[in-house]
Structures are given as structure tokens and as C-alpha cells.
């Protein structure tokens, strides 16, 4: 596999990861009462790729 | 109609505020990406997992691009549908529990408009997610495995969309019937599995069964269309309309279950 295909494959994943991370972090900062400590969610969102922000949206927010 | 538009606006606002509009498409895009990527890198993954004896050689057939798209659809059929059910299990049942419903039900509410507004919003979000997921999968299949005619992919997406619309109606009806959202998810999952099981066991000759719609999509992708596909789609649409009626009726009947 040559370099360009690799880059073309990685750029979309990187963009999705970046967008999800920013959305999740902005929401976490604004969220007055997340489901668990804020610093823990911060670490999860930043460290775990792709799954971290989704986990935060699904279980980290108290929807109801 | 006016009420429907108003309720639609409320639903949209709710879906933006709880970020479903972002994370459901993200999950589907990921599902679409992961399948071709893991398939492409499978030899390297096996190699680096390291439990193979020295000099073991694997002859792995490279999947055709069409097979890859079919595999992506399989992923949507299991994980994707599960995500959709979990995301929308609480649309009516959870509203009853949280008290939003009390604010709505004291007004002269048309339950048809109420149910349809919920279904429309949930369907638009899940359809866009499924489309984005397929397009992401198509892009990666194109990069790693080769080209499929775009029109073929669009056909698959179109046929699969009918199935998604049907499933969303099913989820919302389950949510209208059940007393809480966990129960709703159980009903929706149960029905989803049981109809597939029944169709798999006895449905060999039920060519018009809506459960076969995804299968017909794959058949059309790899070859010529099955002649029963339009009949199956027609029946799926009829069943969806029936589910609308059932959903708005049960939502109305269960409004006494609202917690104040």
C-alpha cells in the first residue's frame, strides 16, 4: 500500500475523531451535572479514540 | 398539520440538545469504516497477534468490493439496528416518565401528529446516519478493494432505507406500548429477532416477506434484481402504515400511565 492511499484512508478518521472530541469536550464543560466526575470524562474523551466521546454522549450525560 | 409541524420542531430541538444528531451518524460512519479496514489488514493483524507457528501460510481470498458492501450491511443489521433501538427506545416511554408528557398531554393533542412527528425525526436521523455509513464504507471499499458502480450502491442504500423506516416505526410502537424505556428496547429487540427467526425457519417461500428486503438489496448489488423486491417493499410500507395506526392508538391509550 502506498503512502497516498494510507493518507486518504486516515484523514477522514482523524477528522471524525477531532469533531467528536471537540463536541464532547464543549458539552462536558457546559454540563453542570455529568454522570460521574468531570475529570474522568475529560480523560476518557481525550484518551480513548473514537469510542470515548460516543461513550460520553451515551452514558455520560443525564438525559432525563 | 400545524400541530405536526410544531411537534416536529420540538423533536428536532430535543435531538439536537441530546446530541443524537451527532453521535448516531458517527457510529454508523465508524461501522462503515471498520469493516473494510479490518478485512484489508487481516493478514497483518493475524501476524502481529503472534500465536501462529513459524512459517504458517494463509491463503485468504480477497473479498470482492460487492461482498465488502454486503458485509457492511450485515454490520448495520446487527450493531447498527441495536444502536438505533437503544437510541430511540425512550422517545415515548421516557417522555412519560420524565414528565415532558404531562406538559404535552394536558393540551388538546392529536396523537397522530404526536406519533408521526417522533417517527419523522427519528427516521430522518437514522436514514442520514445509514446513508453516511454506507458512503463511508463505499469510500473505504473503493480505496482498499476496488470500484463498484455508484448506481449499484445507491440501489442498495435505497432498498435498505425502506427497511430502516420499518424498524423505526417498530421501535416507536414498542416505546408507545411499554411502561419504561428498558421494556421498550426489550420489546423492539424481541420482535426484531423473532421476525428474523420466523422468516429464516419457515419463510423459504415467502418471497414477499419484508424481512427479506436487505437480502434482496444484496442480490441486486451482486447481480440482477429479484422480481419480488417491489412486492416486499410494498408490504413493508403497508406494515409501516399499520404500525403508525397502532402506535398513535397505544400512545393515546397509555397516556394515563404518565407520572406526574
Broad structural category of chain B: mainly alpha
What does the oligomeric state look like here? heterodimer
- Tally the structural domains of chain B: 1
* N-end to C-end Cα span of chain B: 28 Å
List keywords for this structure.
heterodimer, A: 64 residues, mainly alpha, 3 helices, elongated, B: 260 residues, 11 helices
Describe this structure in words.
The complex is a heterodimer of chains A (64) and B (260). By secondary structure, chain A is mainly α. Chain A has one domain. Helix content of chain A is 75%, strand content 0%. Chain A is built from 3 helices and no strands. The relative contact order of chain A is 0.16. The model of chain A has no long low-confidence stretch (mean pLDDT 83). Chain B is an all-alpha fold and 260 residues long. Chain B has one domain. In chain B, 77% of the residues lie in helices and 0% in strands. Chain B is globular and about 70 Å long. The model of chain B has no long low-confidence stretch (mean pLDDT 87).
Q: Brief description of this entry?
A:
The complex is a heterodimer of chains A (64) and B (260). By secondary structure, chain A is mostly helical.
SSE order and pairing:
The complex is a heterodimer of chains A (64) and B (260).
Chain A: H1 3-30, H2 38-47, H3 51-60
Helix pairs in contact in A: 1-2, 1-3, 2-3
Chain B: H1 2-17, H2 20-40, H3 42-49, H4 65-88, H5 93-98, H6 100-105, H7 111-144, H8 150-177, H9 181-202, H10 213-222, H11 229-253
Helix pairs in contact in B: 1-7, 2-4, 2-7, 4-7, 4-8, 4-10, 7-8, 7-11, 8-9, 8-10, 8-11
Pfam family, one (chain A): PLDc_N
Protein name (chain A): Cardiolipin synthase N-terminal domain-containing protein
Organism (chain A): Planococcus donghaensis MPA1U2
Amino acid at each position: 500500500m502506498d503512502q497516498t492511499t494510507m493518507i486518504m484512508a486516515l484523514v477522514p478518521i482523524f477528522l471524525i475523531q477531532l469533531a467528536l472530541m471537540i463536541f464532547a469536550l464543549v458539552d462536558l464543560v457546559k454540563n453542570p451535572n455529568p454522570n460521574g466526575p468531570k475529570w474522568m470524562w475529560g480523560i476518557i474523551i481525550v484518551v480513548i479514540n473514537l469510542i470515548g466521546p460516543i461513550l460520553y454522549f451515551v452514558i455520560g450525560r443525564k438525559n432525563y | 398539520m400545524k400541530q405536526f409541524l410544531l411537534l416536529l420542531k420540538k423533536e428536532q430541538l430535543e435531538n439536537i440538545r441530546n446530541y443524537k444528531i451527532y453521535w448516531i451518524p458517527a457510529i454508523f460512519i465508524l461501522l462503515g469504516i471498520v469493516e473494510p479496514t479490518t478485512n484489508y489488514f487481516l493478514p497483518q493483524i493475524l501476524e502481529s497477534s503472534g500465536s501462529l507457528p513459524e512459517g504458517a501460510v494463509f491463503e485468504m481470498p480477497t473479498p470482492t468490493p460487492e461482498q465488502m458492501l454486503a458485509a457492511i450491511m450485515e454490520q448495520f443489521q446487527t450493531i447498527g439496528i441495536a444502536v438505533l433501538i437503544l437510541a430511540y427506545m425512550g422517545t415515548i416511554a421516557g417522555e412519560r416518565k420524565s414528565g415532558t408528557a404531562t406538559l404535552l398531554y394536558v393540551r388538546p393533542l392529536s396523537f397522530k401528529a404526536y406519533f408521526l412527528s417522533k417517527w419523522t425525526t427519528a427516521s430522518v436521523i437514522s436514514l442520514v446516519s445509514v446513508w453516511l455509513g454506507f458512503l463511508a464504507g463505499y469510500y473505504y471499499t473503493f480505496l482498499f478493494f476496488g470500484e463498484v458502480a455508484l448506481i449499484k450502491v445507491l440501489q442498495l442504500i435505497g432498498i435498505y432505507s425502506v427497511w430502516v423506516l420499518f424498524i423505526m416505526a417498530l421501535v416507536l410502537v414498542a416505546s408507545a406500548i411499554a411502561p419504561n424505556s428498558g421494556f421498550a428496547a426489550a420489546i423492539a429487540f424481541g420482535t426484531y429477532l423473532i421476525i428474523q427467526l420466523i422468516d429464516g425457519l419457515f419463510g423459504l417461500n415467502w418471497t414477499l416477506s419484508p424481512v427479506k428486503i436487505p437480502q434482496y438489496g444484496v442480490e441486486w448489488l451482486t447481480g440482477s434484481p429479484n422480481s419480488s423486491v417491489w412486492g416486499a417493499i410494498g408490504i413493508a410500507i403497508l406494515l409501516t402504515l399499520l404500525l403508525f395506526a397502532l402506535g398513535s392508538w397505544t400512545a393515546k391509550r397509555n397516556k394515563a400511565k404518565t407520572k406526574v
